[in-house]
Amino acid sequence: MPCKLGISHYLGEEGTELLNGNGRFAFVSAHIPEKPTNSSLFASLVTRLKNQGFSVICDIDARTAPAWGFQTEETFLAAFNIDFLRLDAGYSHDDFLSFAKRIPVAFNASTLTEAQKIEILQINPKAISIPHAPTTIYEPQ
After folding, report:
1. Is residue 109, in this structure, part of any structural domain at all?
2. Residue 141's pLDDT is what?
3. Domain count, the chain
4. What pLDDT does 117 receive?
5. Is 31 within a domain?
6. Which domain holds residue 43?
7. Would residue 43 count as lying in a domain?
8. Phi first, then psi: what are they for 6, rounded to 5°?
9. What's the pLDDT at 74?
10. CA distance 27 to 54
11. Is it the case that residue 79 has pLDDT exceeding 90?
12. Distance separating alpha carbons of residues 37 and 29, to the nearest angstrom
């Protein structure tokens, strides 16, 4: 599988200089407990990354959308113009399969069996696999 090196960028790193993303991935998290839910700051971070040419993957858990004032993960994704959601704690495999049918998803490669990965990719060939520490993103061909 081809890979694209990417970056991780978090709230609190707003002053960090960004190079041109050239379509690479930027990993952000919306469920870091020590960071408050600040919609305008988060929107600014995502906009800045996208303006620099990055595709944004956002790490969420089952509590993220309601904590940020959204009814669903889909509305959270749309509100911030995020390219992929990486589903973390609180989602079952069936939940993941349901999301993979409806929205762009990324999955933590270290938490799924090979059969589960194949099942997700059959449902959504554009789903992407990322390792636990997301510095390299593996994309399906």
Report:
1. yes
2. 36
3. 1
4. 84
5. no
6. 37-82+96-124
7. yes
8. -135, -170
9. 94
10. 9
11. yes
12. 11
For residue 62, CA distances in Å to 24, 48, 87, 119 come to 26, 26, 8, 21
**Whole-number Å distance between alpha carbons of 100 and 2:** 21
pLDDT band at 121; cut points 50, 70, 90: confident
Centroid of chain to Cα 82: 7
The distance of Cα 24 from the centroid of its chain, to the nearest Å, equals: 13
Structural domain includes residue 67: yes
Phi, psi dihedrals of residue 13, rounded to the nearest 5°: -110, 25
pLDDT band with cut points at 50, 70 and 90 for residue 135: very low
Burial of 118 (0-12, 13-18, 19+ CB in 10 A): exposed
C-beta of residue 84 within 8 angstroms of C-beta of residue 106: yes
Mapping DSSP onto H, E and C, the string for the chain reads CCEEECEECCCCCCCCCCCCCCCCEEEEECCCCCCCCCHHHHHHHHHHHHHCCCEEEEEECCCHHHHCCCCCHHHHHHHHCCCEEEECCCCCHHHHHHHHHHCCEEEEHHHCCHHHHHHHHHHCCCCEEECCCCCEEECCC
Type of residue found at 80: F
